[in-house]
Amino acid sequence: MKPQRHREEIWLALEIGNSRLHWALFIGETLYSAWDTDYFPESVIQHLAECQTLHDLLLAISPPHQQGNFLTNTPPLCAFVSLPPCPVLLTSVVPSQTAIWQTYPNTRVITLEQIPLKGVYPTLGIDRALALWGAAKTWGFPMLVIDAGTALTFTAADANESLVGGAILPGLGLQFATLDQQTGQLPLVEMQSFPSLPPRFALNTKEAIQSGVIYTVLAGIKDFIEAWCDLFADGKIAIKGGDRTLLINYLQVLYPEIAERLIVEPNLIFWGMREILIGS
């Protein structure tokens, strides 16, 4: 019976995002490790279904730099690696990828209907709902979640655990890429090329693009946060997503009083998935 108990205690969470796969390994309710990978071709997923042990599965889905200590050298994970592959909880915003991953055995897909958030509309993104639920169940309602990813989203719930609403706009990278792809003369601006704030009034095209995108995004974030605080003076604010660090650094320079209010947590969706698992 002991191996079966161990299998129930260890599980994988998989978030299929717009750009990448986001993974988390849980032991019970504790998040042991989190990492990202590129999408896998269907042939690789079929190979994963043939893995005989947890060790083989983790070896196949973990980044090369994590495969040493991550797999066998660090307790408590080393107690599980010889067991059969564990269950996978999956959430996705890419239907074609969802269909592929459902061929993997012992997969449970989390849907919007399973999230106890009140007042949810049918087309609300499952990623937004899970991140909001995970943040609010961890730090309390009312809660506003800012996701600085491929899209920049705002999603909020009140003290009654009911959806207040939110907003969606293109994220930083998408805005830069669109200017490059949809214009004849404007260059592609790489995100990594400006670790510090650009000049607001630029004297060259590259910095003019940086200024236009960065300062309007920051002003928008500031405006949404101020509007949130007017509605809920005691409301919490959490931020996640790949651009979170860059945006927080900028906010600390321009609006330090706002930056201080932010709860920075990249794993909000995994916290939401954990809450769904605990409650089921």
UniProtKB/TrEMBL annotation:
Q: Which chemical reaction does it catalyze?
A: (R)-pantothenate + ATP = (R)-4'-phosphopantothenate + ADP + H(+)
The entry's substrate-binding residues are Y121, G125, I126, D127, R128, T205
The listed locations are: Cytoplasm
Record keyword Kinase present: yes
Q: What is its EC number?
A: 2.7.1.33
Query: What domain of life is recorded for the organism?
Result: Bacteria
Catalytic residues (UniProt): D127 (proton acceptor)
Query: According to its UniProt record, which protein family does this protein belong to?
Result: Belongs to the type III pantothenate kinase family.
Q: What is this protein called?
A: Type III pantothenate kinase
Q: Which species does this protein come from?
A: Nostoc cf. edaphicum LEGE 07299
Q: Which gene encodes it?
A: coaX
